[in-house]
Structures are given as structure tokens and as C-alpha cells.
Amino acid sequence: MTPALPDQRFLATRSLILELAAALDRTERHAAPDPAALAADPRWQALQTAVERLTAGADRAEAVQELFSCPYDPAWRRDGGPQLSGAGGCCGR
Q1: 42-78, pLDDT tens digit by residue?
Q2: Domain assignment of residue 15, yes or no
Q3: Domain of 44?
Q4: What does the radius of gyration of the chain's CA atoms come to, in whole angstroms?
Q5: Is there a domain that residue 3 lies in?
Q6: Would you say the C-alpha torsion 62, 52, 47, 25 has a positive or negative sign?
Q7: Which of 2-6, 37-41, 73-77, 88-92 shows the lowest mean pLDDT across its residues?
Q8: pTM, two decimal places
Q9: Could you tell me what percentage of the chain is helix, strand and coil, using 3-state DSSP and rounding each to the nearest 5?
Q10: Residues near 82 by beta carbon (within 8 Å), at least 6 away in sequence
Q11: Structural domain contains residue 59
């Protein structure tokens, strides 16, 4: 009988979660002189929302991907194509 959660998947997932936790800690430490500015930053807010979505249950990947994606515009071919990531109005900017 195989375990419900194979050891290999547990170790890989644990590693990713620890890496994420460390990245968030480093970001907060870097912003320590002005935590209000970090709290007001829409990118930080998006990261916090993404972490919340990780614990929301099924379809986590889709929920997080939608958070960081520009909304679909059916007329995108008429206006020169999609905006590049990081462009104004896209991805929390």
C-alpha cells in the first residue's frame, strides 16, 4: 500500500513553502523602516492575497494565476497586443 502523501512530494512541497516563507520574511525585513509603505504597495497586497488563496482549497493554481494575470481583452489584436508584464494597469500596477 502506498502512502497518501508520498515522501518525495512532501519534501518538495515543504521546501517550496519554506522558500516562500523566507522570501516574505526578507521582504518585510527590508521594508522595516517603513512598514506602512509596504502595506500600501499593491504588489505586497497581491502577494498576501495569493498566500490566502493557497489555503482556500481546490483550484489553488488557477486562483493564484488569475491574481497575477491581466484580464482577458477580446479586442487585444486590434490594439497592438497584450501589455507586457509590469506595464501600467497590469498585474497590480
Answers
A1: 999 999 999 999 999 889 999 999 999 988 877 776 7
A2: no
A3: 34-69+87-93
A4: 18
A5: no
A6: negative
A7: 88-92
A8: 0.71
A9: 55, 0, 45
A10: 70, 73, 76
A11: yes
